[in-house]
Write a structure and sequence with these properties.
This protein has about 160 residues and is of the alpha+beta class. The protein contains 2 helices and 8 strands. It has 2 domains: about 30 residues; about 90 residues, Immunoglobulin-like, CATH 2.60.40. Strands 5-2-1-8 form a 4-stranded antiparallel β-sheet, with no helix packed on it. A 4-stranded antiparallel β-sheet has the order 4-3-6-7. A hairpin with a 5-residue loop joins strand 6 and strand 7.
Amino acid sequence: MNKPQAWYKQFWPWFLIILPLFAVIASVNLLMIAIDNKDSLVSEDYYKDGKAINMDLGKLKHAKQLGMQFELTLDDSEVMLSQHGGEAYQAALSVEFFHPTIQKRDFGQIATADGQGIYRIKLDKPISGEWEVRLEGYDKSWRIQKRLDLKDDAQYWLN
């Protein structure tokens, strides 16, 4: 007579144990991904942000009144900005690039004009895709802000 096999030598108990085990492992993995990639777009102080938006609108209007207009030229290693409108601006520019969804990719720099009046920013790596570009005078009295779909070797107008 055949002696029955021990449970751990059979297929079905292991099959029934492995299915829930995979679900637990996948859940822990998804939890770790959610913890590592927190949503950074939510603001904690909406009232303060609303007041800041109103101040920004005043700066944008002031830039339009001055007739400020810049041309942005992009290549793999450099961003070049040259002024084409408004009163001649010789001071440094605060140039910031904001990625719409990934805050870690945001960067900014203070740029000064070279002898030809071109502001240059060296890039660590090429950038492309949707970006919010913000130019602000060094005295913070005016601001130009525009969303651009950046591509290599392209020119854009900021006004």
